[in-house]
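Standup notes, structure subgroup. Blocker cleared on the alpha-L-arabinofuranose input:
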Amino acid sequence: MMNSSRREFLRAAAAGMACATALRSAASEGLIEVLIDEPIATIAPEIYGHFVENLGGVVYDGIWVGENSAIPNIGGLRKALVEALRRISPPVIRWPGGCFADSYDWRDGIGPRDKRPKRTNFWAGAAEWPANARHTGPQSYDPNQFGTVEFTRFCKATGAQPYFAANMRGSSAQDFNRWVEYCNSPAGTTTLADQRAVDGEREALNVRYWGVGNEAWGCGGSFTPEDYATEFLRFTAWVPGFNVPLAFVGSGPNGNDLDWTQRFFAKVAQKGELGRVWGWSMHHYAWNASGGRTTDWAAGKGDALRFDAEQYYEILREAYQMSSFITSQWAVMSEMDRRHRVKLVVDEWGAWYAPGTEPFAEALLGQQSTMRDAVLAGLTLDTFNRHSDKVGMAAVAQLVNCLQSLFFAHEDKFCVTPTYHVFDMYRAHQGAQALRTLVSAPAIAYARDKGTGSLPGLSCSASLRDRTLTLTVTNPSLDQAREVDIELRGARGPSANGAKAVTLAAADAHAHNSFESPHAVEPREEQAQAGGARFTRRFPPASVTKLEIALA
Ligand code: AHR
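Run returned:
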């Protein structure tokens, strides 16, 4: 039996759909309504953050080439990478892990570089290493050349804020306090501030963001939520701030584990200490391309380059789950955090494929990055924008040579991936006012295992800064372009300057950049037709588009 409120809901939904259908023009295959007068929240620039783990080719070769290298560098940092990253305005960079963080002793990475100890990297024995990888280099035996000062210089050079992940599994609360002191105690005040000066940084580094452990339910110590809550409170008690408003990020759930969140928040709230939690981290990878045949972590993974329609859509379907994960985590958090002081920090997200397409053998967990990954990035960033009232920070995993990279860098070779271009396009959203959007488009149906899978037909988000509207649209269809009506509700329409469009698309969703073909996928910029408050635009298959519209 259907109750009356459900009946009313369905009637209203049907009326809404009918209304949307009526608004669509005859030839259109979709409608996007941008509600100019319905702001959601300011989009935290930190949503566009990055992740640098000391894993495979991320740090050594990727970022750090050393001061004496023949590769152009800025104090040992790969110059091409610094410059390309600076162009996309990275707001925040997380380091040194990931799982690596819970094995890291920050003291190994300070002092004269030639005196720093060499340690076995957490990832040295990983099952995913390509068979031809040499295990003699810094990717397996960490020479600690890239420590706290080198990382914060990297951040400064690119314009980002540092976000440290502290070791909870292997270090003490005292070690954590000392790391904060090394970073933030004012010049000349403490032994560690003096050490920092010897290391080349006299002034405090003013590090604000501190992750307290990583994946505490797994590689970060296999805690129960209650035990982790106790440790979190011990680590964050009475940490001297040195005039920096420290922001502690708790290690949140595995995917959408609601029980982990509920029990952590309950324990911390019961102690009356929710005020200690600034952010709640959440990790979500899209990795199962198997169409539901298995949920086994390793066996479910597909190939980054060789994929069929089902594998293409399955990865995107998993990425789309981000939206419901955010909503359901938020609902659980709100049981204890009614005023929503704590923000979600999605500090690992992206596609994760099986080994086999690494840009070079030492790039553990390295994988090629195609237009499919650009589509995944577009719809994920759209999701964050639409949930900008909930998501305070995020970090794509990872920056270079690993998982959903923005860059490949090896020896003197360097190139950007399609995902880099998406970040460049979406930069306009940083710090702007997110606006509500309504989307009506036929869902995509695809063959999945022995049945049918389904995906939303379009993804988008919109934001307003001054009188410039930015609308980003992702068409996830593998082979169908979409003719879409765009209605700017509450606006008098574009000014005489009209609209600027940037489109990232390729004839084939498998298209990608490589050292040999670094410009195979690049965005195209054009002046767009946008006459009045309503216009039509065609979005190519497997594409990401940005429209920048100067409002009248
Ligand atoms: O990004 C690779 C790994 O994935 C990270 O180290 C860990 O946090 C996650 O499981």
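Discussed briefly. The pocket of alpha-L-arabinofuranose is lined by residues 53, 97-99, 214-215, 283, 348, 397-398, 403 (CB under 6 Å).
Next: hand off to the docking folks.
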